[in-house]
Amino acid sequence: MPDPLRVTVQPTPNENALKFVVNRRMTEGRSQTFTDPSTATSPLARDLLGIPGVRQVFFLNDFITVTREAGVAWEGVVASAETLIRQHLGPAA
Hints:
The chain has a single domain, classed as Scaffold protein Nfu/NifU, N-terminal domain (Ribosomal Protein S8, Chain: A, domain 1, 2-Layer Sandwich), CATH 3.30.1370.70. Helix 1 packs antiparallel against helix 2. The protein is built from 2 helices and 5 strands. A 5-stranded antiparallel sheet has the order 1-2-5-4-3, with helices on one face. The radius of gyration is 12 Å and the shape is globular. By secondary structure, it is an alpha+beta fold.
């Protein structure tokens, strides 16, 4: 059984981006960037892009960077993003 999912939110140099560090492997050395939910090949990226105000999702190794539209409040984005990350990466119920 895998370790319980841990999600840590960290700031980035870009005030419109936050890094969600997880104890799961998102990619193997190659980054993935998603900007359109209709073409996202990852179900998690598609769902994250469905959060109002999210404009880009980036996966690399053990983290996900979520970029918001300028002026959108982080509070709702962070709560929704963390919930979706836990739903997609946590243990199956």
